[in-house]
Design a protein that fits this description.
heterodimer; A: mainly alpha; MetI-like fold; globular; B: mainly alpha; 15 helices; about 70% helix
């Protein structure tokens, strides 16, 4: 009984941020008493911000899915001389924090015109998520029997064919984990978006709500309402894919 | 604020030892090897272009006075000035405080996971609710925390309500209270995900061992200390490592929104200082040096935990 109450209290406290944001967003605006939600959509290009976030996060998640699924299959089933070394490089890249490489990355991408465009940050997010995703997919493909590939080869199918028609369909659960983690990482990011999308037209929703002055008001309630809107896509992704998230996060524990 | 950086750190070790059965050499011949190269090439190109080369560049620039355009060799100057700069010393001290707060912050999620796994009604729903805030970005969490710790915010009102009005402060405007507020917010924000990881760990504990201990008349506390905790060691280590990695490498947004690193440098982390040094002060060379210190510090802490964990294995 006491246990239920204690855990119930923890669960209730976990909902406090959501409840707080919802309550604030439903108050009338301190400026003129109108609805904060109406203000958000009329005074702020909030739709454009959401679209910008969607473009870079969905774009990078898509790249990560293709790249890590292919690489996972290659590393697990088609070893070549040096492939262990190559995988080791991918594994080592995991340890490098974003902040360590962000200044050279900024320099390099600005030299190629990638700052202030969608493709620059999209590639940054994709490259950032690639090492972890590749290892997740490699471990997944290792768990599949080699006979699947051998049977395909015996049937005269090429490796691309085997990959596309046998391997990809089997890897749907691992792809869900990889894709959702990549999407959430990009959507919720601030640092990369702040540096690589500095223009108001390409600003992401995270940057918009984080830089209070961009909403051009000391109206914190409006900013909080915007932040609630920004949380809706990740919360939906979260609810739908919860199962895969837990397995992705704990993937690193060797039991 | 989901961040797989920590999970990644641990997956590393896994990948290194996980080849399972060794493959027969040349199982499918030359075309297989060529296909292997093609399949893995895009990932390798991304890693080389966005991690390997920039890392080497960062090492080089950390020995220069790079301002974003021109870089002159200055030797160890950036590292020396890091050691001598009081703001950067404060930054390192902040990392230490965050590090020290983490074991304390791990007690509650462990206790919650333990209670959740003890067969209470509605455990499934409660778990989902506890996990839910993990979907929120650090920006959103920071904005909520900023409101809560404001002078007329929820925290001060609660303190007044319970008769501790004299503790009501302008939290984010004072150095030590601001750091305390950041530490509380960080540990509260990772409560949900850490509870869920501990819960996954508790599910792997051998029930028959627990039953046997109970039949032998061991108390619940004794069972927890002598059976469950030892079986959970790997998960405790994992949670500690991922929480440390997130606190070192993933708090930029929280600090940006909540305190801007201030007052002074009282809530700045190394990660935040990289951005600040480069983009506010224009000192990219020093920023690169700070980024490398961040990498070394992170690897150092993980290495120590591993070392400590391994010695526990032998004991």
């Amino acid at each position: 009984m006491a246990a239920t109450v204690a855990v119930g209290a923890a669960a209730a406290l976990s909902l406090v941020p959501f409840a707080f944001l919802v309550i604030v967003s439903l108050q009338p605006s301190p400026d003129d008493g109108s609805s904060l939600w109406v203000q958000l959509f009329t005074r702020v290009p909030i739709g454009q911000y959401m679209l910008n976030s969607a473009i870079v996060s969905l774009g990078s998640a898509l790249i990560v899915l293709v790249v890590s699924c292919a690489a996972g299959f290659g590393f697990a089933k088609l070893p070549y001389p040096g492939s262990r070394l190559a995988l080791g490089l991918v594994v080592a890249a995991i340890s490098v924090p974003v902040a360590t490489t962000i200044l050279p990355n900024y320099l390099n991408l600005s030299n190629f015109g990638g700052v202030g465009t969608y493709w620059g940050p999209t590639l940054m997010y994709a490259a950032g998520a690639t090492p972890f995703s590749t290892i997740l997919m490699t471990n997944f493909f290792r768990s599949l029997p080699d006979e699947l590939v051998e049977a395909g080869v015996a049937d005269g199918a090429g490796y691309f064919r085997i990959f596309a028609s046998v391997m990809v369909p089997l890897s749907a659960p691992a792809l869900a984990t990889t894709g959702v983690l990549a999407f959430l990482g990009a959507w919720n990011d601030l640092l990369i978006a702040l540096l690589f999308l500095p223009d108001p037209e390409t600003r992401t929703i995270s940057v918009a709500v984080a830089s209070l002055e961009s909403v051009r008001s000391s109206n914190l309630d409006l900013v909080l309402t915007g932040s609630l809107l920004s949380a809706i896509p990740p919360v939906i992704a979260f609810v739908v894919f919860q199962r895969y998230l837990v397995s992705g996060i704990t993937a690193g524990i060797n039991k | 604020m989901i961040d797989t950086a920590g999970a990644e750190q641990v997956v590393r070790a896994d990948a290194r030892v996980a080849p399972g059965r060794r493959r027969r050499k040349g199982m499918y011949g030359r075309s297989a090897r060529r296909s292997g190269v093609l399949f893995t090439l895009p990932a390798l190109v991304l890693v080389v272009l966005f991690a390997v080369i920039p890392l080497l560049q960062a090492v080089y620039y950390s020995f220069t006075d790079w301002d974003g355009a021109v870089a002159n060799w200055v030797g160890l100057n950036n590292y020396v000035s890091t050691a001598l700069n009081p703001d950067l010393q404060r930054t390192l001290l902040n990392s230490l405080f965050i590090l020290l707060s983490i074991p304390v912050g791990m007690v509650l999620p462990f206790a919650t996971a333990y209670l959740l796994s003890s067969g209470i009604p509605g455990a499934r729903l409660l778990r989902i609710l506890i996990f839910a805030p993990t979907a929120l970005s650090w920006v959103v969490i920071g904005l909520v925390a900023r409101s809560f710790f404001a002078t007329d915010g929820v925290v001060n009102r609660l303190l007044q309500l319970i008769g501790l009005g004299q503790l009501a402060l302008n939290w984010l405007a004072l150095p030590t209270p601001a750091l305390v507020a950041v530490l509380i917010t960080f540990n509260a924000a990772v409560f949900g995900v850490n509870t869920v990881i501990f819960l996954a760990g508790l599910a792997t504990v051998d029930r028959s061992m627990v039953e046997a201990a109970r039949v032998d008349g061991a108390s619940a506390v004794r069972i927890l200390m002598s059976v469950i905790l030892p079986a959970m060691r790997r998960f405790v280590e994992f949670v500690f490592v991922i929480t440390v990695v997130v606190s070192f490498t993933g708090l930029f947004a929280l600090i940006f929104v909540m305190t801007g690193g201030g007052p002074g440098a009282s809530t700045t982390t190394l990660e935040f200082a990289v951005w600040q040094t480069a983009f506010s002060s224009g000192d990219f060379g020093l920023g690169a040096a700070l980024g490398l210190l961040l990498l070394l510090l992170t690897l150092g802490v993980i290495g120590l935990v591993r070392l400590f964990g391994r010695s526990g294995d032998e004991a």
